[in-house]
Amino acid sequence: MHQTFDAALEINLLHANQAGADHNRSHFDEWGITCFNLMSSPGAGKTALLEKTLHCLRYALNMVVIEGDMTTELDADRLRQYGVPVIAINTGRSCHLDSKMVSGGIHQLKAQYNPSDFDLLWVENVGNLVCPAEFEVGEHAKVALLSITEGEDKPLKYPVMFQEADCLLITKMDLAPHLDFDLDKLINNVRQMNPDVTIIPVSSKTEMGLDQWFTWVKNQVSLIHQHQQLISV
């Protein structure tokens, strides 16, 4: 059976993007930087979570952010208040960051700083539950967010995001008393897609679960750095 033109084009795009992602990751490994790709639908709380994380881990890790939005630097400006370098990328009509866009952000980083001075690069992707999961940017781990206001069925309706995630944060848990929401049902749906993903219910407002999240971040950075040291020998 012959592939349709659209299917062949998508495969070629993903292949080219993957080559760029591998190239980005080789830079990260050379510099000893861990890269996390933060993904969710719009309004799930990525920026609020990053605000808490940048504030609470600022003495434990040297961090930098590549902030992706279709337009404006509103979220980038929010994060700059925490004293970390923030590189803003506007994607225009594109619904996700790709490896080429992140490569452009890396070049900006190199022009302004010594990349080896950083421990952790956050890539805050464009709000979308579909495309960001398919287009790698060179990350060492994918972190997905799902707010309880989105419903328990999203892992079944948008499976790729949850299949690809290394860590899933269930956000806005402070709203649980006010919603018809079943946490166990949501977790069961996630486990059908990805039995091994780390799941952490959190609230950036009340700080519920954030200590567990910070521990996961620090442990992953340590493990990835150890691996980087091994491959550099």
TrEMBL record:
Name of one Pfam family that matches: cobW
Domain of life per record: Bacteria
GO terms, biological process: protein maturation
Keywords for the protein's UniProt record, in alphabetical order: GTP-binding, Hydrolase, Metal-binding, Nickel, Nucleotide-binding, Zinc
CobW/HypB/UreG nucleotide-binding domain ranges (all copies): 37-200
GO molecular function, one term: GTPase activity
TM regions (residue ranges): none
Cited Gene3D superfamilies: P-loop containing nucleotide triphosphate hydrolases
Family the UniProt entry places it in: Belongs to the SIMIBI class G3E GTPase family. HypB/HupM subfamily.
Name of the protein in question: Hydrogenase accessory protein HypB
Source organism per UniProt: Cyanobacterium aponinum (strain PCC 10605)
